[in-house]
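Table S2 (text version). Query chain:
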Amino acid sequence: MPTQPEQPEIVAVNRKAFHDYTVEETFEAGLALTGTEIKSLRQGAVDLREGYARPEGGELWLYGVHIAPYAQGTVNSHEPKRKRKLLLHRREIDYLSAKVQERGLTLVPLRVYIKRGRAKVALGLARGKKQYDKREAIARREAERAIAQALKAQRSGDERARQRGR
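Corresponding structure-token output:
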């Protein structure tokens, strides 16, 4: 009997990235971590808000991601904001490096998760939003929320009218 594919355990989500950037493509990359980093990551002590990825020497590196020191670690624990190597196929690294050289595109970490025991990061090839784009997105979200509330109120009003008519 075939087993269900294992769902990845999401450790951290970068909600600010979706607010500040328009994500055009997403990629999955492995993270090269030390022992105390993976233990801390499994506890969810990760902050992606200031993170970004950049090509350097034919490799991709993740900068600005804060992984808190492991509580039970020793003095030789990891540095919280060190750069971390991203593990991708050569073709993906070349493609992303070329895209990042393009004006206005950047690589932003969207999610960190554990998949089959391995730490993974979802990278988004993103373009920065202007201030007016952010305001439009907020206005659209609020309008959708107002419409949903109005429809809900109308439905509950119809149910009450039917109950009174019985």
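Notes on Table S2: The chain is about 35% helix and 35% strand. The mean pLDDT is 84.
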